[in-house]
Amino acid sequence: MAYPENGTPNMVARQGYAAGFNQGQADVSRGQAFRPTENKAYAHAKIPKGMDKDQFKTEFRESFVKGYTNAYKGQ
């Protein structure tokens, strides 16, 4: 799995991308439909202590969808 580098992404973005990429690959291998936002990891990611909940969700989810999309489309 390769994270597309645009500068140095933060840890939340890396985690979201990795989780999305892994889930996208799993869904492709199982013949599942493209549904990145209907995934448990997308909806219930663990928020690190001391981090703003809304900021975390936004960054994680945006990166999750990017990773999922790249894996699903074979990029």
From TrEMBL:
This is Uncharacterized protein. The lineage of its organism: Bacteria, Pseudomonadati, Acidobacteriota, Terriglobia, Terriglobales.
